[in-house]
């Protein structure tokens, strides 16, 4: 199922939590959803899942509107909240049986067995949840979010507090799930988003400030600060580069020029033409990749 967020705005009294948010996610896509605390992430996730109404705008699954008043549509969404509320005095299998009952699932045993196998809970299914490690509790949370076979899965900080082995297990599970479902993963762990997601959306102060592939966001093209490293076979004066269209700044690095764009477009073709017109040999011409964390700080820093 394709998910579309269309001009969603949310007001809490006079406070605006979301301001005309627009983006879409396709089936089989694993989207990283990033933002600082208070940016509007949790509010939007609650609107997507149908727990909270938008002040204006709509959320659609394919062509069906998501609403707090349309439980049949909401059945297509699975949600693992950040703090993973579990009934810790229940046994794992017992908890999943109760969850399946909430959805009125027929053939409960079959669904529960499939979830236990998918999430690797086979050896833990007869234990009380309170006896499980953090990693296995997260697996139980994933199982309850998936037990009704939703087409859209919303995961809010699913790997917080996990050790490296647990982290890799959960990441692998999320990757596998995303092949058949639409998945939105919210996380403060930038390395996790880089490792797992196909695309990233960054929200700040209720507005979308970046939306693109990991490579596009890291390159700086989307936010208008593309940086290119260019080296020539002969000396070039910085004034020669500064007059080129689309160039904002030029700085000499260790052995090449570091050239920043003004955001009007990709400056690599401009630099290539400059070299050709001046009979220069390009020894290097490459886009400098920032890490996702530095881009996130640039886009969400406060004034």
Strand content: 25-35%
Q: Determine the structural class based on helices, strands and strand pairing.
A: alpha/beta
Task: Give, in order, the helices and strands.
Answer: EEEHEEHEHHHEHEHEEHEHEEHEH
- What's the total helix number? 11
Task: Write structural notes for this entry.
It is a single chain. With 303 residues, the chain is an alpha/beta fold. It folds into 2 domains: 3-218, Rossmann fold; 220-300, YebC, transcriptional regulation domain (Alpha-Beta Plaits). The chain is 33% helix and 28% strand. The protein has 11 helices and 14 strands. The protein has helices at residues 41-48, 71-74, 92-102, 108-118, 134-146, 164-178, 190-196, 214-219, 238-242, 268-277, 292-300; strands spanning 3-12, 15-25, 30-34, 56-61, 64-65, 77-80, 152-156, 182-186, 199-204, 207-213, 227-232, 247-252, 257-261, 282-287. It has a 6-stranded mixed sheet with strand order 6-7-8-3-9-10, with helices on both faces. β7, α6 and β8 form a beta-alpha-beta unit. α3 (92-102) packs across α4 and α4 packs across α5 (134-146). The two termini are 39 Å apart.
């Amino acid at each position: 199922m394709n998910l579309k967020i269309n001009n969603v705005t949310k007001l809490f009294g006079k406070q605006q939590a979301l301001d005309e948010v627009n983006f879409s996610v396709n089936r089989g896509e694993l989207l990283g959803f990033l933002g600082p605390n208070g940016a509007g992430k949790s509010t939007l996730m609650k609107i997507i899942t149908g727990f909270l109404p938008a002040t204006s705008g709509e959320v659609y699954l394919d062509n069906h509107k998501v609403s707090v008043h349309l439980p049949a549509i909401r059945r297509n969404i699975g949600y693992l909240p950040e703090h993973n509320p579990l009934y810790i005095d229940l046994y794992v299998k017992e908890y999943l049986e109760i969850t399946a009952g909430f959805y009125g699932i027929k053939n409960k045993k079959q669904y529960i067995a499939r979830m236990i196998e998918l999430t690797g809970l086979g050896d833990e299914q007869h234990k009380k949840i309170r006896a499980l490690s953090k990693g296995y509790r997260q697996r139980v949370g994933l199982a309850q979010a998936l037990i009704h076979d939703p087409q859209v899965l919303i995961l809010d900080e699913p790997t917080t507090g996990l050790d490296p082995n647990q982290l890799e297990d959960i990441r692998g599970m999320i990757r596998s799930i995303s092949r058949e479902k639409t998945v939105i993963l919210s996380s403060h762990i930038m390395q996790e988003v880089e490792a797992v997601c196909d695309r990233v959306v960054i929200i700040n102060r209720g507005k979308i400030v970046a939306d693109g592939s990991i490579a596009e966001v890291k390159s700086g093209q989307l936010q208008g600060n593309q940086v290119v490293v260019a080296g020539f076979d002969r000396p070039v004066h910085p004034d020669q580069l500064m007059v080129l269209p689309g160039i904002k700044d030029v700085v000499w690095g260790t052995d090449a020029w570091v050239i920043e764009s003004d955001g009007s477009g990709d400056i690599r073709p401009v630099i290539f033409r400059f070299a050709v017109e001046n009979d220069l040999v390009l020894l290097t011409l490459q886009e400098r990749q920032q890490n996702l964390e530095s881009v996130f700080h640039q886009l969400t820093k406060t004034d």
